[in-house]
Predict the 3D structure of the following.
Amino acid sequence: MTESSHDTSADCGCGSRRAFLADLGMGFTGLALGAMLADERRASAAEPTGAGGPARHFLPRARAVIWIFLSGGYSHLETFDPKPALNRYAGKTFAETPLENPVDSPLHKKRFRSVPAEEVNVRDVYPKIYPMQVGWKRHGESGIEITDWWPRLARHVDDLCFVRNMWTTDNDHAAENQIHTGRHRLDETQPSIGAWAHYGLGSMNENLPKFVVLGGPTRSDTRQSIDSYYLGPEHAGVPLALDPKNPLPFGSRHASQSLEEQRAEYELIHNLNALTAVEYPHDAELRARIRSYELAFRMQAAVPGAVDLAEETEATARLYGLDNEATKVAGQRLLTARRLVERGVRFVQVFPSAYGVWDSHQKLQANHARLCATVDLPTAGLIQDLRQRGLLDETLVVFCTEFGRTPGLEERSGGKDGRDHHPNGFTIWLAGAGLKRGYVHGATDELGYHALGEGHYVTDLHATVLHLLGLDNRRLEVPGRKRLEIDHGRVIDDILA
C-alpha cells in the first residue's frame, strides 16, 4: 500500500489515543475527545446527497457553498444593475433631475454609518451624475440585463438569481470584513459566515478541512473575513495554496522523515497536548491544536490531490481559462473550489482577484473592462462545470463584493472618470441548490442609489446561505454570547425555489 493511500484512521494509534484520553478522566480533555467523536458520528451520518445529518436543524437544500468574493467593490451599475437614467441625466446634479434627490431620502441616514465625522465625509454624496461606462442588454429566456463586460456569464443568466437591493453600512474597506461577519468595524466582531457553517455542520471528509480559503485574505486587517472568534479557532478558514507540492504551509512531511516516524511524532505531540489540557481546561487554542494535529496528519495525503489540477482534462482547463494568462489565476482557484466541494468540503471561500483591485476611484472603464475579463470566463466555466457534473443542484454559489459604486462622479483630487464607495445599494448573485433560476429579486432606484423597500443587510445573505445548508441561524447560539437582531438577519424567502 502506498503512503498516499494509507488508511491513517485505521492504524495511527487512534484506539490507544482514545484510551489515553479517557484515562485522564473528566475535564477538558474528555470534552475534546467527545468533540472529536461527535464529528466522526456526524461524518458517518452525513449523506453525500445532502440529505442531512444530526447537526442540521431541518432538511437542507445545499450540501456545500462556493463563496466568491471580489475585493474592492465592483460597480453594480457597470455589472448587474445597469441604469439608463445615468445616461439620460449625465452631467446633471441630482437636484437638476425630475427624480427624487436620493441624498434627501431618509434611507440615506438610516443605513449610512461613517467613521469620519459627517461634516468632513464627502463619500456617497457626489451630486454630478456619471454616465454608464459600458453597454448592456437582456439575456436568456429570463431577459435579465447584464452589461457587455460579462459575455460568458450572460450565457448562463437563466441559472442565476440576482439580489439587487443589498445594502451595508461601512463606506470604507472594512466593509470587506462586514460582508463576511455582519458587523461594522465600530462594533464587536462576529464570526465569519464560513465559520458559522463550519460550526453548525459535521464533516463529509475527515481528511480535508470543512472551511477552505483560496486566494486570500492577503492582509492582516482582513483576517476577520475568515475568522471564527468566540466559536473557537478550530472553526476558522484554512487557506490553501495551489501548489500540489506544498499546498499547506508547514504541512508537509520532510523528505528525511518516514511516515512511521512522523506518525510517532504526532502521537507524542498529541499526548503532550492532552496532558497540558488537564492543567488548562478552558484553553480554546489548545483544544484547536489537539484537533489540528490530527487533521494535519490526514491532510498530507488528501490536500495535494485536491489541488492537483494536472488531473483535469484539457477541455476542463480551457473551460476555466487556464490556457490564458488573463484568466488563469481566477480559473485555477475556481476549478480547485469545484474539486474541493466534490471531495466533501463544506465551505470554500474564493478570492479570484487580488485585494482591493475592483476599487475604481479613477479610470473605472479601463479597470472594470480588464477585471471583468479576468473573472467572467472562469465564473461561467464554474457554473457550466457544476451543472454538467450534477453538482449545481447540491452546491450553492455566492458571488459578491463589499459594496457598490456611486451614481455620482467622484470629484476628489480632481477625479473625472471614476466612482467612489457606495454601501446604500448594490447587487450580488447566487446560483444552484434551492434557488430560483433566471430570477431578479429587489431593485435600486432609477439612479442605482438606494436599495428600495427594506432591502437586505448583509446578514440576510448569511441567514439565507445557512438556511439552504439546513441551519437555523437563530439557533446557532453560543452560551454567554447574545447576538443582536441584525446579527441574525432574515432569510430572503422570495429567492428560494
Q: What stands out?
A: The chain has two domains: 1-45+255-305, 59-242+307-495. The longest strand covers residues 160-167. The radius of gyration is 24 Å. Residues 1-54 have pLDDT under 50 and may be disordered.
